[in-house]
Amino acid sequence: MGYRDVLINRDGHFGKFGGRYVPEVLVPIMDDLRDEFFSAIKDDDFVSELRSLYRHYIGRPTPLYHCKNLSDTLGGAQIYMKNEGLLHTGAHKINHCLGQALIAKRMGKKRVIAETGAGQHGLATATVCAKFGLDCIVYMGAKDYSRQRPNVFWMEQLGVTVIPVTDGDQTLRDAINAALRDLISHPEETHYLLGTVCGPNPYPAMNTYFQKIIGEEVRDQILAQTKTQPDYLVACVGGGSNALGLFYDFLDDDQVNMIGVEAGGKGVSGDEHAARFEGGSVGVAEGFKSYFLQDADGQLASTHSISAGLDYAGVGPQIAHLKESGRVKFSFAVDEDVIKSYQLLAQSEGIFAAMESSHAVAEVIKLAPTLNPDQIIVFNCSGRGDKDLFIVTRELEDEGFKNFLSEQVSSQS
Ligand SMILES: *Cc1c(COP(=O)(O)O)cnc(C)c1O
Q1: What backbone torsions phi and psi does residue 170 show, to the nearest 5 degrees?
Q2: For 323-344, how does the pLDDT look when each residue is reduced to its tens digit (9 = 90+)?
Q3: Does the CB atom of residue 359 touch ligand 1 within 6 A?
Q4: CA torsion sign, 398 to 307 to 129 to 142?
Q5: What pTM value is reported for the model?
Q6: What domains sit in the chain, N to C, each tagged with a CATH number?
Q7: Residue 169's pLDDT band (boundaries 50, 70, 90)?
Q8: Whose CA is nearest to atom 7 of ligand 1?
Q9: Residue 45 CB neighbours (<10 A)
Q10: Which active-site residues does the annotation give?
Q11: Is residue 196 in contact with ligand 1, taking CB distance under 6 Å?
Q12: Cα-flanking dihedrals φ and ψ of residue 54, to 5°?
């Protein structure tokens, strides 16, 4: 069996990873969702509605852009960017949010719940719920709720009820527990919209299906532009959805090399990072078996990254399988290099990549000079950088922006 058949399958096991470790009461709910999903993707009407929304609502296909200046500067391989940052809402997350909203509608669900840490997933979920007229509740750890105010504001503008969760250490983990409790109490009318290729079966397979359009487009676009296929694919890895989206279509093409880039934070020798393959170990958490950063008691460890979207202690089970089988190689980028890569891309191509995506750029900057000018790297720019205004201005210690903020404060009071 090829990798593609393994990664989207009904039983949700990927080598020794994946599965469905959930309370008994959730089993029939997950079974229904799985059955609906696998029947939907065989239904021509469903597939054509999805394709139409990809095109007309979120703006697919996204460009595949030859970063000629960056390629010339680095003096090696030809670098191409798949620009998911140009999608509606600014990142690839809308691909699987749209797909799951269609599944929820098909199941007659009236209510969608989600959890979010940095708020990006909450915002993409809020967007599709507004469009499809679904009631939406987003759980956020109380700490995240206050520090991610801009996203909370936008979610509320879209009609979402955002609920701060005051249990535990008031972050993503606690929000996930609150969402699961909600699902258990309202199983009939609720769809739990999960934001990456993690969680219990069928979420990893389902979100991979909705993201694989990225690589499918790349295959046609790179062929049209260069008459050949890429030598390397590079993507950042939080949960793993944008990486699998880019990689999936090429997994059974042996000549295409793939690199996933984790968040190296302040360095992988300490504990302020989120590189699960550098110091993580196999475990079961949040409904699935995979690699997790764990503390001595086996609890999920706290993580750090300059990018909120890569800052998760676990990684998707399919990604763990691709690591274990050797099909995909993994590396990491530290915060300091991420900021420099973000600036180099902006200054050479006029494109601000998200902090998450800038991890992929950092790897490209290392890789390209080791290759020949007739070789091709495609990296996924999973999102655009506007959302990171506050992070980047703080990181670069921009005085003018600080003054601007204090003026705003005085003018609003
Ligand atoms: C959320 C996010 C990620 C990380 O999630 P994956 O599931 O690993 O793709 C990466 N890039 C951007 C722009 C994001 O918003």
Answers
A1: 65, 40
A2: 999 999 999 999 999 999 999 9
A3: no
A4: negative
A5: 0.98
A6: 3-55+91-207 (3.40.50.1100), 62-90+212-394 (3.40.50.1100)
A7: confident
A8: 241
A9: 9
A10: 67, 92
A11: yes
A12: -55, -45
